[in-house]
Structure prediction request, 312 residues.
Amino acid sequence: MNNTVLTCHQLCRYYPVRDSLFGRHKTIKAVDGVSFDLSAGRTLAVVGESGCGKSTLARLITMIEPPTTGRFSLGGADGVKSMRRQVQLVFQDAYGSLNPRKKVGSILEEPLVINTRMHRAERRDEAITMLTKVGLRPEHYSRYPHMFSGGQRQRIAVARALMLRPKIVVADEPVSALDISIQAQILNLLMALQDEFDLAYLFISHDLSVVERICDEVMVMYLGRAVEQGAKQIVFQRPAHPYTQALLTSTPFVDPGRRAQRVLLRGEPPSPMNVPHGCAFHQRCPIAEERCHRERPELRDVAGRLVACHLV
Ligand code: SF4
Prediction:
């Protein structure tokens, strides 16, 4: 049975900008030709440094903004309203995303008020059920967001995202603002809820040690494009792209064997306004050669994953 819930084909999001007040018009290619499938019950992690386009991708999938070109489709959804219900977003900053003047019950019920014809009592039941599913208690229904810890607030944000029983949750750095021990609790919660509701996660993160715990597949992005994409076991154990290798070796994993072959990442990513010709990574790549300055590598299948590098 095909349980693909999201298919993206060559998604692009471009922004016109000027490099100074009277300067030339330029185009920032925040997302530039990204394709992937996502299945029910699976997690695709999108990783990369800040500015690589991962948060823009989250905004496209959650329909906060439209793609410039390319398309995506959600299995079984017809019409924008139905599509919007099927994809929900969890942000990094739970406190900023919860209205401080509203009680938790009303925050959770708001999506039901807008999208369903449920009566007040039904909404309340749904909200209390969801509170318990995310590890909170029924009495929390009548409290305000400031009365909770950071981890509890993220549980409330997750509960709100699930109120409409979406198929897909886009989680944009959902644990990066939390302490390590709380991060583990929220990741465990997300995995338990994934099993219970057969959710598909698009998990956006810069932290590979977090991603390794939760994802099935991974897409590594650099300046708007995927540079390596495939099953977690393959990409984490045998990273092929020099950028993936550098990210992995700069991540403090528990397994010390990982630190053996260290590939240092030089400098910062170039500005998205001035993406280098050829391979966008060539200025930082330890094995770049002349061809890399001229020709942009396209994604191709190498040993069971996709890689965009001339020399792999
Ligand atoms: Fe490095 Fe060249 Fe591969 Fe780009 S194409 S990652 S510059 S070796």
Q: What stands out?
A: Residues 128 and 139 are 9 Å apart (CA to CA). Residues 180-197 form the longest helix (18 residues). The chain has a mean pLDDT of 92.
